């Protein structure tokens, strides 16, 4: 298990989950691809456990952009929570042949998620995977906090 920190917040995940996402993203190379992150918080909300991910089927993508349909179907997440105990906690997508750092568009997308009043998610996580045509090069987890994206170290 890998643990990363930002201020008093911790995030943990198995590298295997990241590798699985990368494998799927590589299938979509050279276009970007991504989806949702699932997980749960500790009782005091200081630790986030990332436990799974979902793919999206409605999206627009190119080598430099990935935009899913913005209308999140809340009922699906309720069902997922009932079945697995996992919540929608953020987003992930690939950056083919580019850095694992967020773009201005990515920042705006996270801002939209927080502003969206159907989603009660104040500090969504963003995972960016830097990939080549055949492997995962790098990745970063960011948390949206006070209108900024900050990286978990
Ligand atoms: Zn991006």
TrEMBL record:
InterPro entries for this protein: JAB_dom_prok
The keyword Zinc belongs to this UniProt entry's keyword annotation: yes
Pfam families: Prok-JAB
Any single GO BP term: proteolysis
Name this protein carries in UniProt: Peptidase
Domain of life: Bacteria
Keyword line: Hydrolase, Metal-binding, Metalloprotease, Protease, Zinc
JAB domain ranges (all copies): 16-130
Sample GO molecular function, one term: metal ion binding
Organism classification: Bacteria, Pseudomonadati, Pseudomonadota, Gammaproteobacteria, Pasteurellales
């Amino acid at each position: 298990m890998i643990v990363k920190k930002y201020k008093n917040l911790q995030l943990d995940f198995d590298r295997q989950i990241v590798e699985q996402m990368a494998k799927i993203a590589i299938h979509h190379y050279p276009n970007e691809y991504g989806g949702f992150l699932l997980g749960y918080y500790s009782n005091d909300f200081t630790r986030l456990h990332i436990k799974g991910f979902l793919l999206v089927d409605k999206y627009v993508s190119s080598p430099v952009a990935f935009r899913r349909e913005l209308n999140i179907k809340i009922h699906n997440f309720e069902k997922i929570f009932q079945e697995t105990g996992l919540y929608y906690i953020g987003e992930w997508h690939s950056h083919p042949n580019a850095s694992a750092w967020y773009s201005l568009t990515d920042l705006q997308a996270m801002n939209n998620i927080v502003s969206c009043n159907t989603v009660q998610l104040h500090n969504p996580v963003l995972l960016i995977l830097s990939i080549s045509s055949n492997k995962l090069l790098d990745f970063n987890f960011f948390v949206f906090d006070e209108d900024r994206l900050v990286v978990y170290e």
